[in-house]
């Protein structure tokens, strides 16, 4: 039983092969490092990148007079001033280059009919048409182009079906990692001095999400266990429009961001176009946090439709027939399941993890040799992310992380992963596979956790429910110790769930505790008991670090080096 521990030696280990990880691998390989790119699933298909619908935000100015400064300005204002201005600045400045990089790797962006310009789309919160795209499958095309390029590099070793469980750190920084080869059922001891975490978000901690099922926040939890700082644990974005019916589609996003301007509308059960009541001028053309909260209020105040959603009405879009062909996942495939796409019942779904690992503009975490990029990182988007900025962040910081990880690896003496640390982690992994667990099976605990988080730490929060969530998470953490599961090492899904649960429970506690600490409402964080935005006391970020078994929280004021005059664009709906 799990007797073998295979040895892997590499200059740079990259965990996650989505947009951020794959881009990091390419860059590290170009700097001549030997790279191991590990993914929990199939490298080309695991992760949320494939699901990205349309928008890749970059101020190319092909549709109008846009500039990176305008992009930066929109990002900060829509982040409700909580974003790290340094990170946002780098993202917006290098966004256009990353569009060209992807084109070099083989992604043929949509262009104007004469072929001279990229076709750039509008989206709420962006002052200009900024979204380059490829039909309704931009994410898939980004992922394919990157993996095709990864495969052109002989010094990148792709390891699919490898679940990395721990990063090994001593006083000098990163010294290795441990993982499980799911297919071979073998433990891996990885010797490396540079690790890039690119494991994406933590949507699976919440019951209703449109993210990929492997989005369990492993990388955030691993970095935290290793002693790295996390930032903004309370910030989680919901996408306003997702199917509520039929059950198989519940939580799947209905593409809408680019369609509001073309006539897409929202109605409640009384057939009232309710956004006219909240924002008579902009109506539905509002950022995600505001739209989600308005929809949620309609539902909770009793104006929801049959299955607990509101109506998304496509009949006002003039060229809907053409547009729907570009968005099959939202408008063609659901028809086969009986959905009337002229009027779709929708509600918000968990969409993006705004908080995460703290990095600087060099993609360095607070641990030497540990880098992070993509959705796993916190503070780039503050309290609300704009459409299209996620992919841009992945590509821009993936490149930076890959370069710096390679430079560190090539200038540091390699040494084997310390045996005692490897042994301790292997014992932890084996310990989860008991012969005689008597408790519930991992899936049941998993479901309870997701239910508790969605209902208590979701779109609308209050102190009582947040404290209830913390208590429930503590009970589940106790319960998970005696979990009962199938005792085999080959593709043992229950074993993986049990290990994921360990991290998810730790993160859930941080998410709920952080949300309880922030006694105001801002962007995606809405407190019924503190409904007002409070710039005087809360223009700051919450941070947390693990010291031994203790969680240490503190706050730091947001610095405003480039945009300093804090002005909100609109009053928020219920304040
Ligand atoms: C429905 C939907 C539509 C979206 N549309 C857009 C859009 O139009 N524009 C936009 O900019 N953004 C969009 N986003 C957001 C965007 O897709 C994501 O933020 C982005 O793709 C995240 O990329 P990533 O590389 O950080 O992580 P991911 O693409 O999620 O990749 C994570 C990788 O880490 C691996 N992994 C995880 N844990 C482990 C582990 N323990 N060991 C080994 N490997 C591990 C996974 O297997 C995977 O390879 C959308 C999101 C959703 C859900």
Key terms for this structure?
575 residues; alpha/beta; Flavocytochrome C3, Chain A, domain 1; five-stranded parallel β-sheet; 16 helices; binds flavin-adenine dinucleotide
Q: What is the CATH superfamily classification of the domain at 421-537? A: Fumarate reductase/succinate dehydrogenase flavoprotein-like, C-terminal domain
In this structure, how is the largest beta sheet organized?
Answer: 5 strands, parallel
Shape: globular
- The beta-strand count equals 21
What binds here, in terms of ligands, is: flavin-adenine dinucleotide
Number of helices: 16
Order of strands in the sheet with most strands? 6-3-2-10-17
Structural class: alpha/beta
* Proportion in helices: 25-40%
Any idea of the CATH topology of the domain at 421-537?
Methane Monooxygenase Hydroxylase, Chain G, domain 1
The averaged pLDDT comes out at 93
Q: Which CATH architecture of the domain at 421-537 is right? A: Up-down Bundle
The CATH class designation of the domain at 421-537 is Mainly Alpha
Beta-strand percent range: 15-25%
Distance between the termini: 59 Å
| Radius of gyration, in angstroms, nearest whole number | 23 Å
> Which regions are unreliable across 5 or more consecutive residues at pLDDT < 50?
none
């Amino acid at each position: 039983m799990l007797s073998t521990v295979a040895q892997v030696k590499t200059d740079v280990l990259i965990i996650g092969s989505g947009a951020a990880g794959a881009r990091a691998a390419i860059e590290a390989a170009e700097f001549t490092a030997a790279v191991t790119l590990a993914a929990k699933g199939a490298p080309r298909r695991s992760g949320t990148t494939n699901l990205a619908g349309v928008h890749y935000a970059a101020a190319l100015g092909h549709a109008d007079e846009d500039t990176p400064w305008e992009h930066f300005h929109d990002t900060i204002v829509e982040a409700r001033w909580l974003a790290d201005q340094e990170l946002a600045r780098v993202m917006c400045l290098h966004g256009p280059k990353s569009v060209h990089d992807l084109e070099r790797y083989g992604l043929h962006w949509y262009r104007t009919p004469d072929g001279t310009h990229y076709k750039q789309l509008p989206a709420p919160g962006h002052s200009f048409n900024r979204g380059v795209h490829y039909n309704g499958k931009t994410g898939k095309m980004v992922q394919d182009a990157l993996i095709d390029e990864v495969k052109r590099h002989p010094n990148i070793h792709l390891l699919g079906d490898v679940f990395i469980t721990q990063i090994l750190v001593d006083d000098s920084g990163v010294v290795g990692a441990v993982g499980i080869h799911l297919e071979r059922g073998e433990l891996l001891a990885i010797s490396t001095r540079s690790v890039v975490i690119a494991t994406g978000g933590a949507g699976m901690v919440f019951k209703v999400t449109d993210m990929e099922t492997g989005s369990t926040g492993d990388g955030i939890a691993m970095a935290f266990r290793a002693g790295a700082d996390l930032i903004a644990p309370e910030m989680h974005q919901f996408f306003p429009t997702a199917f509520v019916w039929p059950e198989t589609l519940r939580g799947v996003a209905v593409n809408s961001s680019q369609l509001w301007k073309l006539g897409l509308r929202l109605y409640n059960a009384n057939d009232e176009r309710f956004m006219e009541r909240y924002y008579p001028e902009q109506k539905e053309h509002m950022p995600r946090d505001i739209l989600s909260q308005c929809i949620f209020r309609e539902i909770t105040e009793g104006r929801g439709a049959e299955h607990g959603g509101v109506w998304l009405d496509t009949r006002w879009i003039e060229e809907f027939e053409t547009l729907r062909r570009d968005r099959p996942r939202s408008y063609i495939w659901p028809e086969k399941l009986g959905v009337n796409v002229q009027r779709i019942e929708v509600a918000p779904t968990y969409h993006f993890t705004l908080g995460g690992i703290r990095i600087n503009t060099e993609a360095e975490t607070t641990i030497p040799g540990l880098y992070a990029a993509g959705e796993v990182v916190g503070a780039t988007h503050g309290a609300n992310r704009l459409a299209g900025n996620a992919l841009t962040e992945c590509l821009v910081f993936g490149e930076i992380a890959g370069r710096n990880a390679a430079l560190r690896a090539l200038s540091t003496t390699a040494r084997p992963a310390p045996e005692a640390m490897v042994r301790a982690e292997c014992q932890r992994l084996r310990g989860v596979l008991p012969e005689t667990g008597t408790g519930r099976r991992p899936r049941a605990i998993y479901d309870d956790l997701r239910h508790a988080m969605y209902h208590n730490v979701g779109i609308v929060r209050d102190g009582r429910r947040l404290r209830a969530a913390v208590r429930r998470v503590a009970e589940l953490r106790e319960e998970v110790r005696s979990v009962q599961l199938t005792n085999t090492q080959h593709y043992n899904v229950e074993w993986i769930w049990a290990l994921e649960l360990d991290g998810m429970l730790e993160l859930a506690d941080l998410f709920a505790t952080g949300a309880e600490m922030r006694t105001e409402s801002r962007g995606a964080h809405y407190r019924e008991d503190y409904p007002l935005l409070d710039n005087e006391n809360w223009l700051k970020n919450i941070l947390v670090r693990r010291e031994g078994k203790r969680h240490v929280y503190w706050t730091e004021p947001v610095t405003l080096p480039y945009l300093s005059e804090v002005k909100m664009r609109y009053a928020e709906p219920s304040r």
